[in-house]
Design goal:
The protein is α/β, with parallel strands linked by helices. The chain has helices spanning 2-8, 14-17, 20-26, 46-52, 78-96, 101-105, 153-179, 215-223, 264-267; strands at residues 112-117, 122-128, 136-137, 143-144, 206-211, 228-233, 258-261. The strands form 2 sheets. It has a 5-stranded mixed beta sheet. The radius of gyration is 24 Å and the shape is globular.
Length: 270
């Protein structure tokens, strides 16, 4: 029987020391319970990462000062390069304040984000760092007169896209009410070809940032399902896409995007 096998398979007194509530959960599920050693420290290289992950989920962080030599070579067409440079130019303008918008917005760090639909090449979301801004509006139109540490450029841009999705959903509901559900409003403003399928945030979109995103922003972009991230200025202290951490290389994530580091000197060309 499973219970007997489980008890017999435990090394030492581990089974006897288990709480009765945990035993009742394990007995119907396992044929054997055994003890195993798990890593106490982080792996030193990717070989150890793959080996240790068989026993216990761990992550690998590139040591400070070590040059990453296993970056993937992703082919990009000349047309895509031209589009990427164009959108990076907009990011640079928003981040450095050359258009005057940044100074008026009272932003925090020098960063900006632009989210683009690659199918239509249309900008669907913009964001500037607003961590020091004392006037900003929440998703439900409430005006806040206090700075927020969460108002990073990528977070603001995602919120901007979400507002577009929300408006699209409201238009469709109104249209269904007026027409009895036979038709749906156009979603050409987001570039989605199927009006019957409500778009999920940034699915299939590209995000351009002036500075490398932090872990919070990089993870938010994972949840938003972006297709590609391109940034210019690396952040060795807080960057989550190669600077201090490589979040996009974690195999445990349920979504992965491409990451491009575009040199500032190239992105700054007119």
């Amino acid at each position: 029987p499973r219970g007997a096998a489980a008890a017999a398979g435990v090394q030492g007194d581990a089974w006897e020391c288990m709480p009765s509530a945990l035993k009742s959960v394990l007995l119907p599920l396992v044929c054997r319970v055994s003890l195993a050693e798990v890593p106490r420290h982080s792996p030193e290289d990717r070989e150890q990462l793959q080996d240790w992950n068989r026993v216990w989920p761990v992550s690998y962080k590139v040591p400070a000062g070590k040059v990453v030599t296993r970056s993937a070579k992703i082919k990009v067409s000349e047309e895509d390069k031209h589009e990427m440079l164009k959108h990076l130019g907009l990011v640079r303008e928003l981040a450095t304040g050359e258009s005057g918008q940044r100074r008026e917005a009272g932003c925090g760090a020098c960063n900006a984000a632009v989210i683009v639909n690659p199918t239509t090449k249309e900008v669907v979301g913009l964001g500037q760092d607003q961590t020091k801004s004392t006037d900003w509006t929440t998703w439900d139109s409430r005006l806040v007169h206090a700075p927020s540490p969460l108002r990073h450029a990528a977070m603001v841009a995602i919120e901007n896209v979400a507002e577009g999705v929300r408006s699209w959903g409201n238009k469709r509901k109104r249209s269904d009410t007026e027409t009895g559900g036979d038709t749906a409003p156009s979603v050409s403003d987001r570039g989605d070809g199927d009006p019957e399928a409500e778009p999920y945030l940034c699915t299939g979109f590209d995000c351009y940032l002036w500075r490398e995103p932090c872990t919070m922003c990089a993870m938010a972009l994972v949840h938003s399902r972006v297709r590609r991230i391109t940034f210019c200025v690396p952040d060795p202290k807080w960057g989550a896409l190669g600077g201090a951490f490589r979040l996009h290389s974690l195999t445990s994530l349920n979504h992965h995007y491409e990451v491009f580091h575009w040199p500032v000197i190239e992105a700054s060309k007119p």
